[in-house]
Amino acid sequence: MADKVFGDGKGRGKEMATRLVQSGVRFDTATGAVSVPIYQTATFRHPAPGETTGYDYTRTGNPTRQALEEALADLDGGAGAFAFSSGMAAIMAVMLLFETGDHIIFGEDLYGGTYRLMDWILVKFGLHVSYVDTTDLGAVAAAVRPETRGVVLETPSNPMLKTTDIAAVAAFCKERRLLTIVDNTLMTPYLQRPLEHGADLVVYSATKYLGGHNDLLAGIVVAATDKLAQDVALVQNGTGPVLAPHDSWLLLRGLKTLSIRMDRQQENAQRLAKWLSIQPQVLQVNYPGLDQVHVQAAGPGAMLSFSLKDAQAAKSVIQRLQIITYAESLGGVESLLTYPYLQTHADVPEETRERLGINDRLLRLSVGIEHYEDLRADLEHALRF
Amino acid sequence: MDWETRLIHSGFDIEEHTGAVSIPIYQASTYRQTSVDEAARYEYGRSGNPTRNALEGTMAVLEGGSHGFAFSSGMAAISSALSLLKTGEHILVCRDVYGGTYRALTALFSRFGISNTFVDTTDILAIRAAIRPDTKALFLETPSNPLLRITDLRACVNLAREHGLFTIADNTFMTPYLQRPLELGVDVVVHSATKFLGGHSDVIAGVAVTANEQLAGTLRMIQTTFGAVLGPLDSWLVSRGIKTLKVRMDAQQETAGKLAEWLAANPLVKQVHYPGLAKHPGRDTHSSQSGGFGCVLSFTLADGVQARKFLKCVRIPILAVSLGGVESILTYPVTMSHASMPRECREELNVRDSLVRLSVGLEALADLKEGLDRALRESVTD
After folding, report:
1. Residue A4 scores a pLDDT above 50
2. Residue B195 is a catalytic residue
3. Complex ipTM, two decimals?
4. Quick one: pLDDT at residue A38?
5. Are B156 and B140 in contact (CB under 8 A)?
6. DSSP A208-224
7. What's the pLDDT score for residue A293?
8. What pLDDT was estimated at residue A349?
9. Same structural domain for residues A315 and A240?
């Protein structure tokens, strides 16, 4: 009876913008609440031993988190999605799918926290890692060993914004029975859906664009198949790094405006990238929107980085900014600037940083939804050191 | 300052800037940096959040440790503590450990070459006999779940130190109000803060505390890198719950003691397990290391059929997993808390289908007696 009145979660529309805003809208069948209730509970009453309402213990399953996970699985076209307490917890959960002796290939241009995770903790669990330029399939192939079990890539990469061909890597991996894992944080399913290109697992720091308001920490894993989903579920329940109900609700809330936020952020980024590339103080701008054709993504995104001709100027530029905030993180509605060399990528080995161009001239800009002219003027003022 | 006053005034719950008596909920993932050369006190939510840090500081004070760490669940706290080990190392674990800990070790950590042996930790000789050259740690729960078996913490600590092992104790059932393992020499204490600390069955959380600087450094690295951190609102809820920890446990413990005696005298109940009962094995050891008998007891009925019928008939307490909240909760270990332990292991431990666990809440003793009594009588009628 309740189902007929309140619907069953289908009918979300075909276009991403529609599906995003419809996330969770039909989830509550008890009252029809359009905003998913926050099930701030640890446990659930059993009607009798051996009988359950479908919920037992929030670590294992919680309706609010479930509404979020179902929406995310649908958006990426996966068999299952899992919400974690942070992006790193999501990456860690994927790493726990492997075992001692396994070898994993990582894109070399990636978040410093992942370096730290791989180098420090997983070496002690007996996993082996190689870092390669995943934009070069030959380099990936050269790194494969008998013990290789997976390839992890970010595209566009962080902070150099290089594009890796997901379909090519996924096809390569499938032939060799390796898992293809894509960190899709910068794009989100609104712009890029790795599973459609053959990836097996997608991970997100949902702290970034998905949440969108710099007000929550969360991580997501989406699995392509039921089997992988079961494996991830075991890790999520077994090690317990689950996203709390309140934060799950906040993330659901953020999803609803993802399309319009990303549209505006992307538009601002494209214009700023063009403007920066003709400024005399700027040596180079890294942004997919400047020179690349988009096959696997619907757009270039809203993240760019740029290097200054004068490395000494970096500090001054940072200090002169008044609207763009100097802070870690990215993807939120407020524009943020980071200094990868000292902040997010400090843990990447010096030699690698140099080779990739993550040096003391490089600034990374996560473009927000402020008015374009204010952002441009802020950068102009900052560059006039 | 008395311990019970420190529950309320541990020094981390009044916000410096405004004097707000309740720590603000810092629902923020990042923080403005004011200098390029030096990081501000807070950089990113995963590595530091004032609301979470307030809880962590409070727990460190209450357990008599130096560093506290808050996680998204008890299993996240336990997994993080187990991550102190590495491939090739071996851990000894009390054999009647919580089912989730059992599963994490046998289904996940074993994949990474961290081997385990489950021992009867109530028997020091058994622990000693199980130590191997690659053994690095000893994991304890006392009283254990669900049979309330008592392990001698001081003796285990001495044995561990003799062999260069570090010790981890799951102190969920007792909480630092009743038992402070770090003060007895244990290296790391872990909690499912979901239970008595949070106290209202409304938040999933885990905590680890240590007084060991080196382990603290490693745990900090694990917490920041694995990222299984507790969210700001949930941190605030646990902090809020802790303030009434003593009054809740005092009341619940008193009721539990009376119910244990009453059940032990009930002809429909075969056996009752509660550290406060005169004949409970290890009672004296428990009294030497704890300030009270706690709020959890378990009891057996004639058989599984009666147990299931009892659980089906009962209205108060409710039937659910978990424990430690203000509402009394009955749990059926074989299908719930210990379902992830293989049947043979459960049988060896005497965790049978006639066993029921009761976490005593704040309801009136008379109502709990009445509810249990009625369900017991209904469980033996056709």
Report:
1. no
2. yes
3. 0.93
4. 97
5. yes
6. TTTT-SS----EEEEES
7. 57
8. 83
9. no
B33 with A243: Cβ contact below 8 A: no
**Known active-site residue A372:** no
What integer is the mean pLDDT of A104-112? 89
Which residue ranges of chain B lie beneath pLDDT 50?
Answer: none
How much is the pLDDT for A153? Answer: 95
- Say yes or no: B352 contacts chain A, CB-CB below 8 A: no
A231 plus A113 within the same structural domain:
yes
- Residue A290: per-residue pLDDT: 66
Q: Is A266 on the interface with B (CB under 8 A)?
A: no
Chain B contact present for A243, CB below 8 A? yes
Q: What is the CATH classification number for the domain harbouring A96? A: 3.40.640.10
Please give the tally of structural domains in chain A: 2
Residues 6+ apart with CB under 8 A from B177: B3, B4, B7, B62, B245, B246, B249, B291, B292
More confident of the two residues A141 and B36:
A141
State whether A118 and A176 are in the same domain.
Answer: yes
> Model pTM?
0.94
Q: Which of A51, A53, A86 to mutate to test the interface with B (most CBs of B within 10 A)?
A: A86
Among A19, A65, A193, A208, the active-site one is A208
Of A256, A279, A302, the last residue of a domain is A256
The shortest C-alpha distance from B1 to chain A (Å) reads 33
**Claim to verify: residue A189 and residue A308 sit in the same structural domain:** no
Query: From the candidates A102, A183, A231, A378, which is the catalytic residue?
Result: A183
Task: Select the residue of B31, B202, B312 nearest A41 (Cβ to Cβ).
Answer: B202
Gap from B90 CA to chain A (nearest CA, Å): 13
- Asked if A203 and A282 sit in the same domain, the reply is no
Residue A385 above 80 pLDDT?
Answer: no
Structural domain of A307: 259-383
Average pLDDT over residues A280-308: 88
Lowest mean pLDDT among A1-15, A292-306, A353-367, B358-372: A1-15
Q: Does the beta carbon of A322 lie under 8 angstroms from any beta carbon of chain B?
A: no
Cβ neighbour number for residue A59 with a 10 Å cutoff: 28
Pick the last residue of a domain from A227, A256, A285: A256
Domain CATH code at residue A358: 3.90.1150.10
Looking at residue A292, its pLDDT comes to 61
What is the signed CA dihedral for A198, A181, A237, B196, rounded to 10 degrees? -140
Q: Kindly list the residues from chain B whose CB atom is less than 8 angstroms away from the CB atom of residue A318.
A: 36
* Both structure tokens of B185: 């020499």
Q: Is B170 a catalytic residue?
A: yes
> Does residue A265 share a domain with residue A218?
no
Domains and CATH numbers, chain B: 3-242 (3.40.640.10), 245-379 (3.90.1150.10)
Judge whether B98 counts as a catalytic residue.
Answer: yes
Alpha-helical regions (H) of chain B = 3-6, 50-63, 74-82, 99-103, 124-130, 153-162, 175-178, 213-226, 232-242, 245-264, 283-289, 304-313, 343-348, 365-379
